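Q: How would the structure tokens look for this protein?
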Amino acid sequence: MSKTGTGSEIEKSVRFYGRRQGHALRPRRRQLMETVLPRLRIVVPPDQETLDFDRLFGMQKSEYWMEIGFGSGEHIASLAERYPDIGFIGCEPFVNGVAALMSSIEERNLTNIRVFDDDVNKLFASLPDARLQRIYLPYADPWPKTRHHRRRMVQPETLNTFSRMLKDQGEFRFASDHMPYVQWTLAHVTDNPDFKWLAGAADDWRVRPVDSIETRYENKARSRGAKCVYLQFRRVARSM
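A: Here is the predicted structure in token form.
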């Protein structure tokens, strides 16, 4: 999908829904938001120019992965520590979650994460075509009421954006404990010819991928008896 014309307008027009901050930050985390975050923050370029990932990280990385809605950041921080040669783009508008990630980055001395601490829809139009190897969407708000379904991150237009940003054979990974949202996502993604569902057996969606970790939210979900589902989709090769 081209970034010009209708596609670009769609990417810039989606509205964010949700709260921005919870409890007041502790002094140490407030300090990290003032000292660490400015060095790692992604700023939308003027006039919707395309971001240069290599310049963003100060060097070329072997791959670029993106996590949308990283919560408290334990998943993206774990991946960044495990794969130091990969550049990670984390998107999260919730202040407390960003502050938690800043703490992890400082404690683990991580240098391969950049953060967009605003509505990710504002960033989409500036992201380059076919540069991401993975997009993670873990435990996004399911917006369960029918009248709120339009607020879900997984929408036909958003999937077109994911398709544009992913490299050939890149992956979109989704996890949720909300079965109606799982069904919604499976239906929408499999309806898009740019994606192939990778499941070959039940364990492929029942068992967390080996290179992922249990997040704080997932632990809470399991503690209350909820079942979690993991969906993996591959971006099919573009026609020559």
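The radius of gyration is 17 Å.

The beta strands are 63-68, 86-91, 113-116, 132-138, 166-176, 195-197, 229-235.

Upvote if useful.
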